[in-house]
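Consider what follows.

. . .
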Amino acid sequence: MNSQIKGPGIFLAQFAGDEAPFNSLESITKWAASLGYIGVQIPTFDTRLFDLDRAAESTTYCDEVQGICADAGVEITELSTHLQGQLVAVNPAYDIAFDAVAPAAGQKNPAKRQAWAVDQMKKAANASQRLNLKTSVSFTGALAFPYLYPWPQRPEGLIEEAFAELGRRWTPILDHYKEHGVSIGYEIHPGEDVFDGATYEMFVDATGGHDCALINYDPSHFLLQQMDYLAFIDLYHDRINAFHVKDAEFNPDGRQGVYSGYQPWVNRAGRFRSLGDGQVDFAAIFSKLTQYGYNSWAVLEWECCLKSAEQGAAESAPFIAKHLIETPDGPCPGPEAQRGAGEPSSPHALATLPSWLQA
């Protein structure tokens, strides 16, 4: 029997480095395969592993990339544009922080930085199409997030205009993705304007209900906000097109809560942990995603303030593998058959996945 959900996959961004085997696509994919991974999510912003400019223009280069992966025994799960997506929308309060990841020409020049990011996003759509990928993953960026807390009181209409502008920036990009048969799974993440279900709905509305504005589901960010990450799947399962398997723990005390007092990661009440070391109920998550017919990749996104990356990667492949569910009679019934009487459904649900996005 085969698992409905594919995996284990691994996001290479946290492991790439300047020393072998982490400094080239050929060597890092062989390393990943040796640990039991069968899929790799490629960060398009790391030129040690991937040349996005070439991939956007050259089928030959894309064939070479696929060949390197195939020779190692892995598939490409998605292309990641997290850093480029972040730079599509940057509140000036974050200029200093994000100039550190912007190209030299875009530093201290927000307009050039944004133009570069938009161009990169569109190139990633072109590259995904050349690689026969229908899904990508990214961030939305942030215009409103510095005003998250309702004090000082926000000027009337500020949040609405911030999301309207976010929609104006992203809609042409999403249109380009649709033209190339690719969707974007946005990682719902504090620091982005889209950090929970309510803000995701605001973003979808701002893009005119765009059917390419989907979700990269990552429960760690919901646990650290003390959200019900299982109920999130009930609400938005038909917009989930990617899955980051990432763990976290939240241990509030008399000194710290969700905001964690500007403490370093090791001392925070909320912190990311290696798979199995945190508090996320992955058995329940894999069950729900299987129940609702999710059939794409389960991809490790690793981060931990205590454990080494090498140990975390080695332990996480079998952790994901043991959570994959072998369905006895093929994929589980779709959302309509699974949703029980009175079960909540998102007003932003897709009735069916567009045919051009179906596997």
The domain at 6-357 is CATH 3.20.20.150 (TIM Barrel). The two ends are 19 Å apart (CA to CA). Residues 139 and 240 are 14 Å apart (CA to CA).
